[in-house]
# Entry
Amino acid sequence: MKNETVNSGYRLGLDIGGTKMCAVLLNGEHLVEHYRLSTPKEGPRHFWIMAVAVLKPLLERAKKDGKNIIGLGLGIAGTIDFRKQKITNSPNLPFLNGIKPLEKLTENLKPSYPLFLDNDANCFTRAEAVLGAGKKFNNIYGITIGTGIGGGLSLNGEIYQGAHGGAGEPGAMLVDLENKITLEDAYQKLTQNNSRILAQEAYEGDPLAEQIFQELGEYLGMIFANIVNIVDPGIIIIGGGTAAASDLFLSTAKQVMTEYIENPEARGIKIVKSKLGELTGAIGAALMVK
Amino acid sequence: MKNETVNSGYRLGLDIGGTKMCAVLLNGEHLVEHYRLSTPKEGPRHFWIMAVAVLKPLLERAKKDGKNIIGLGLGIAGTIDFRKQKITNSPNLPFLNGIKPLEKLTENLKPSYPLFLDNDANCFTRAEAVLGAGKKFNNIYGITIGTGIGGGLSLNGEIYQGAHGGAGEPGAMLVDLENKITLEDAYQKLTQNNSRILAQEAYEGDPLAEQIFQELGEYLGMIFANIVNIVDPGIIIIGGGTAAASDLFLSTAKQVMTEYIENPEARGIKIVKSKLGELTGAIGAALMVK
# Structure
């Protein structure tokens, strides 16, 4: 592989979500080591200390293996101003709003290698496109359904950022104009920030919980159809905590989606679950390092 | 210019819409001649005779100038199966459903040059991207609002077709899930296939007509926001008959759009009218010829 020939070091990936911080160490595309901690929510000071702490075991492993770190990719939940390398809106980690995370990480980590920034849903999509369920496709749309809803579009192996870095925000799409409800609004209202317990109730046969996932499926189907009608990806890949319960909503989503896809050729599009599991975001962050 | 150096012939472009057939003759990117006829709706036989007739004055001009035709691009209103080069759905010209238009044109025209096919909204977007209002942008979203609503996405000078040729169908997007109303449905219901007369009434101060354009503006704003949240173009360019009356709905559309764009950087996106006017589609068809 080119990366291994030209540069024999390891790549670091750090994925910071609303619940967990995951870090991975890659040798080429091979996972060497990973580590995970809960995301501290008390405020910035403890947050950055922990962001460095989650990397420590991996830095030690690289040292033990006699390998350099050639770069670190950071994936973070929130909207990013890529020009300024600044977080403009992180609903689940509000103390990050207005922060330049690579500067903060540099201060605390003092790295001798370059750092790269992206949002977590783009990292998810990148990893699935390069190493996961999207490997055989040129156009991949990834959607993360977890604490919030995120998305990313990969075209020919590269994340498509758009003109202002604002591409791939399915959560912001309106599902109800009259009542001004976005997919993210509808998702939060339906799941009440507790989709795991709700899924358990649905699996135990609670009709109200089942109904909620049906409704979620309808909203997602509408948004999937919108995505196909605009960018017509070869595959849609879903991930995040709620995707684990996809059998509760995915068949409804597919049914609604198919009904509203304009091009008959595009109606057979597959929607599949992430192949790389919990580490997808961190792997996708590491893959930013070239 | 490269095209002129390598190949000194003229390019033909033919745009077939629900109302008019427009043909252009290009020398490089320069318009040499154009011609226009009404689209016959009686059935296929007369239709293909007229499609050849609209090209005749241009073929004669090329001959007079001592120039070869190096190719013809055909833009047509409807959904296209690009793999089979077949029209799958043409709501305004239903006798074209299931037809391979390039085969039909070849039978009737007997050309000695290659033919290329695309839908009319992609042709509109291509022309505006290469020669019109999108010239200075890498990512352009074009929307045609005329007999129906179409769209196209141009990335770095090329039309993005998607995995199944189904990209850029804003008319198919849902604006109301509960009542299963797409933008195209809402548009047809609001304008009753008569947006020109409706616009005149609104300009004369008819409150009902004004109200209808306000509603159209709200729906379009919702769809513009969806487009920005998914593909984040550098500019949105509108064309088609109804776009001429854009002062009746565009400020409402922009207001609704801005409210629902997730990324603050993307909120300043410009929505402008086509620069090339009535011939845009035919020019974009000719530009398919390389």
The longest strand of chain A covers residues 30-38. Residues 207-231 of chain A form the longest helix (25 residues).
